[in-house]
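lol ok so funny story. i was supposed to be doing the assay writeup but got distracted and ended up predicting the structure for this chain instead. priorities right. anyway since i did it might as well share w the group, maybe its usefull for someone
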Amino acid sequence: MSQINNPFIAVGVGKDATAEEISAAWRTAAKRLHPDRHPNSNREELERLTTQMSILNASYQLLRDDLEGMRRAFYPENSVNAGAQRPGESAAEFRAAPV
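and the output, tada:
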């Protein structure tokens, strides 16, 4: 299983992206990566696309559910309380989440 390193990077947006920009970037990437869009690909390529699509979807879900929390977790230097993360918001916990 792959791991999510940074959901902003996985979706293809910057740390200051709006919810609308994140959604648009996800749709664009999903159209490009979805295995159904590549019917003539070999098995290995389809597995790679499936894995990438899973990472994309999981990353999008994280950003959609808690955008500000993800900003604090992955870009703490830009947070108002840069050193103060609440339990469950550590970047390490999100990076270790299996896809």
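The longest helix spans residues 43-65. The chain has a mean pLDDT of 82.
back to the writeup now i swear
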